[in-house]
Amino acid sequence: MSYLELHQLALGYGKNKTAVEQLDLAVEQGELISLLGPSGCGKTTTMRAIAGLIDLRAGSIMLDGRDIGRLPPNKRNIGMVFQSYALFPHLNVFDNVAFGLRLRKVDAVTLRSKVERVIAAVGLSGFETRLPAQMSGGQQQRVALARAIVIEPKLLLLDEPLSNLDAKLRVQMRAELRRIQRELGITMLYVTHDQEEALALSDRIVVMNGGKIEQLDVPENLFNAPRTRFVANFMGFENLFDYRDGFLHGEGGKLPFAVAPPDGTVCAGWRPERVTVGAGPYSGTVLSRGFLGDDVEYLLQTPVGPVKGMTAATAARWREGDSVDFALPAGEALLLQA
Amino acid sequence: MKEGLFSRAMLWLVFLFLLGPFVIVFLAGFSAGDTLAFPPTSYSLRWIGEVLASDEFQRAFRTSLEIGLLATVIALLLGVPVAYAMSRMPPPGMGVIKQILTSPLIIPAMLVGLGLLRHFVLVVDAPVFLGLLIGHIGLLTPYAVRVVYASLVNLRVDIEEAAITLGASRLQTFFMIVLPNIRSAVIAAFFLAFVTSFNQVPVSLFLTGPGISTLPIEMLGHMENSFDPSIAALSTLLVLFTMAFVLVTEKVLGISKYM
Amino acid sequence: MSVHQKKWNGVMLVMPALIFTVVCFLLPVLALLLDAFRVDTPAAHWGLGRFVDFFAEPLNRQVFLRTLRIAALVTLVSALLSYPAAQAIVRVAPRYRGMVLGMMILPLMVSPIARTYAWIVLFGRNGAINSILLSLGLTDEPQRLLFSEMAVFVGLLQLLLPLMLMSLVSSMENLSRDITLAASTLGANAWQVFTRVTLPLTQEGLIVGGTLVFTGCVTAYVTPALLGGPKVLMLETLLYQKVSVESDFGTANVIAVILVLMTLAVNAGLKRISSSRSTV
Predict the structure, then answer these.
(1) Among partner residues B24, B101, B195, which is closest to C21 by beta-carbon distance?
(2) Which residues of C touch B84 (CB under 8 A)?
(3) Smallest CA–CA separation between A71 and chain B, in Å?
(4) CATH assignment of A4-232, given 3.30.70.1050, 3.40.140.10, 3.30.2020.30, 3.40.50.300?
(5) Do residue B177 and residue A88 have CB atoms under 8 angstroms apart?
(6) Do the Cβ atoms of A94 and A128 come closer than 8 Å?
(7) Does B189 reside within a domain?
């Protein structure tokens, strides 16, 4: 029996809209698992249902052996960090963090020591009397985290907590989150639409699309061996083509594919880094050229539609409108059965 | 800019028109004479003193104060939950409910007074004070709802959700999280309602009775019989009272954004 | 926090206020209004007989028309005065804006008795205006200024102007200065800018203000009572007279219905205009 189990979960809005259907998920204690997917895929809806902020249409949620589906949200002991932090504007940092403990009638001495310890853990010692309005986004986010952690919840839910921070801060906070999670051994469910973030943080990732799970796997497998076209696209395989009878098909055209793939292959894909630009059996026209520092990214117009490739900046001599050869190496291909 | 000059001039004119009369009443109240001459020939505090000493005015003032405070508190107790429901969990038929609850603002107040008199007070033989109180409460509740609602729609819902995930019940969330954050709106509603009640005439016209009269009604009655400057003096006192009230709360809370 | 629970909670929270308003407000007023439609004819129990009788009396007709007339005039003049004043307010530096607005709101917070009183002082026989006229030698004896339509007009104007002003100010605040500047760079003079740009874009405020002022006039009591007296009656003072002096509740109910119909008509009519013209 896993720590958190979702059985055949069905969730929806209003009368007819279904957000999630027949969702099964098992999470182990101490895991950091991400729900990854585009907007509208149902990841936030699932998270809110676990928190109790949304009703279940069908299915059950088991946490540490207990069926919590019927419990009101304030009895589930699940901490939640909101995308907008949702700090109480009229309370300072200390009181924000202490809120949950005060509701649990923790005695003053214990309360003080717990709150101060967790504030130190997120690196905000000295900020206790500040009001949320007097703090930066990153600081507010850490207060939100501290507030949710200090109640020692069975499960911590994080709803895109880093999306409002600038890129540099995001990377920094990511590492912090991971460190704290490991130290405290908290089971975390993390919602994001950023695949890089999910890959860096998670023990396992759940890729969702249209209310269903596309693939549930460890980051390495998702990155190297996505199992469906959707996941492949999401993981950065930008060149995906249908495969039929020895040809790659796309946008009304086709290219012969030399090597015969295993039976049942319907799709082949390449990461831009793996496309050879400058030499190869195919030919295309440069649509656009983007300088990335060490590399140059090329978007080529080809018989099967746009192909994105990369080449070292030192070798990138083609400009927009130029004709250039390229190759889709069979060895670098991702072959999919679905 | 010529256009700017014209506007500015009009603004000053309007100011003069709106606020000048206060100055006039002010001066008239300090007149020493027996009748309402303006400009006064001589000044004294005589009428101010008479007004402050008058039994009827004192009684009426107390009644107005009592009714004002009671009606305001009850209007808030009725209205704040409505504002909360409207903004967070509108019940079915919200449109109709809103119409019903705003109707006191549309129905001419005098009719309310008359209607309450004939079809409530006389029917159940209710005490005068109660009839008066009910009339005022009904009038004030829409103000309470409107002002508090304006503040609630600007308060994010996620902080309530956060409180709930941390273990608070809906009631606890309301008192610990929502209320402190709409505090200034509630106070603004309080002042607005109180002042409205205190100055209210049409509703009270038919609902006052022997011994129970609000200050404005008392003033009106007095004016029918005598033309002395006492009403000017009383008006001056009331204006000063209201002015201090409004200026202080505007400074502290910025009521104007809730109007 | 299920969806069902939420809806039910919403109903509970609204109930007390709703019950109170219906029982203590709507029902008594409805009873009052319905009374006006009762007739004592052998043919039917309901009818418009009372209304016919009401309008048959020339005095009543006069009062009715006078009320409409003065209300329309006050609304018009308040709009004319408020537009330029509102523009000036909107251009005031933000530092003083609060103070200026406070001064606009102040009159609304003061008892209508106090506000009307000044006009009594001014217009009275021994009042300021007469003193000036006499001392300037323009008349031989004090003029009767009080208890005239003009006095009521001025009093109501002063009473209700802030409503129109505030309405226009809030509507103009949303009108970006750039728009009027753009119009003038395209060649419009001040008057054209006003009629073709400012006016259409602030019509919402004008309509709201107009509704407030018009209904304010129709339902005013203190000002017409003090400045008009028994000689210049408006609908509300007539109503009061019917009840407290003549104990003529029948006519009072008729007047009540007329008042309600007028306010509803103005509210609904102007709402219709604003929504049909909102294709700006």
Answers:
(1) B101
(2) 13
(3) 12
(4) 3.40.50.300
(5) yes
(6) yes
(7) yes
Which of C101, C131, C267 shows the shortest C-beta gap to B39? C131
Count CB pairs under 8 A between chains B and C: 264
Interface of A with C in 257-316 (CB under 8 A): none
Q: Which pLDDT score is estimated for C279?
A: 45
Does residue B8 form part of some domain?
A: no
Q: Is A321 on the interface with C (CB under 8 A)?
A: no
pLDDT tens-digit map of A255-303: 888 777 787 888 888 999 889 888 888 999 999 999 988 899 999 999 8
Report the CATH number at residue B234.
1.10.3720.10
Domain ranges of chain A: 4-232, 236-336
DSSP-derived letter for residue C198 is I
* pLDDT for B163: 95
C225-260 pLDDT, tens digit each: 888 888 888 999 999 988 888 888 888 888 999 998
Give domain A236-336's CATH architecture. Beta Barrel (2.40)
**Residue ranges of chain C whose pLDDT lies below 70:** 1-8, 41-44, 126, 139-143, 274-280
Q: What's the Cα-to-Cα distance from B153 to each of A83, B131, B159, B176, C91, rounded to whole Å? A: 20, 34, 13, 18, 29
pLDDT for position C143: 64
CB contact under 8 A, B163 and A148: no
* Identity of the residue in C82, C111, C165 whose CB atom sits nearest the CB atom of B238: C111
Q: Which residues of B touch C89 (CB under 8 A)?
A: 11
Token pair for B112: 């309310």
The structure tokens 């003032």 sit at B61
B235/C113 touch (CB, cutoff 8 Å), yes or no:
yes
Q: What strands lie across the sheet with A247-250, from one edge to the other?
A: A253-256, A247-250, A239-244, A267-270, A334-336
Decide if B41 is inside a domain: no
Q: How many domains does chain B have?
A: 1
Nearest beta carbon to residue C102 from set B85, B119, B247: B247
**B229: nearest CA partner in chain C:** C121
Domain-embedded: residue B40: no
Do the Cβ atoms of A82 and B181 come within 8 Å? no
Question: What is the secondary structure of C200-254 as a DSSP string?
Answer: HHTHHHHHHHHHHHHHHHHT--HHHHHHHTTTS--HHHHHHIIIIIS--HHHHHH
Question: Which residue is closest to C264 within chain B, CA to CA?
Answer: B106
Whole domain around residue B243: which residue ranges? 55-258
Residue B172: its chain A contacts at CB < 8 A?
Answer: 103
Tell me whether residues B107 and C29 touch, CB distance under 8 A: yes
C-alpha–C-alpha distance, residues B112 and B107, integer Å? 7
DSSP per residue, C107-171: HHHS-HHHHHHHHHHHHSTTSHHHHHHHHTTS-SS----SSSHHHHHHHHHHHHHHHHHHHHHHH
Residue with tokens 């109707």: B103
Kindly list the residues from chain B whose CB atom is less than 8 angstroms away from the CB atom of residue C191. none
CA distance C139 to C129: 11
Residues of A whose CB is below 8 A from C1: 52-53, 72-73
* pLDDT, greater one: C270 or A101: A101
Residues A160-185 as b/e (b if ≥16 CB within 10 A, e otherwise) read bbbeebeeeebeebbebbeebbeeee
Contacts of B167 in chain A (CB under 8 A): 74-75, 77, 100, 103-104, 151
pLDDT digits (tens, 9 = 90+) for B102-141: 888 888 888 888 888 888 877 788 888 888 999 999 999 9
